[in-house]
Design brief:
The protein has 146 residues and is an alpha+beta fold. The N and C termini lie far apart (54 Å).
Length: 146
Amino acid sequence: MANLLTLTSPLMRQTVGFDRFNNMFEQLVRNTNEGFENYPPYNIDKVGENGYRVTMAVAGFTMDDLNIVLHNGELSVSGAMKEKEAEEGVQALHRGIATRAFQRTFRLADYIQVTGAELKDGLLTSSLVREVPEEKKPRTIKIETK
């Protein structure tokens, strides 16, 4: 049950790479799901030790309709469909596939880099990896005796 709460907490839905801080804040935000935008739906997955994947359902959007920007530690994904002329002789009776414009921003932890993005079968997948510089990694200090 705790893992389900971890994956669905509002903190984890808006951040990537802050796994170790989630438990501290989960109690504070457990019942505050109201106010978080749900469109378009998305998943955040951890892939291996240092990899992450953000997958967004963007059915109906083309590559020309989507924009991904990484700036100051934030990954912003936006989409806006261009007006399409109706087919001659076709009248829409129901429009259930959402085509409204959106912008979703994810705050990234230090050293998280975007390595690529792919649009396939209505899913936009952004791949991320944590690349900690050698000088920031823990190192063992030799103890000398005199």
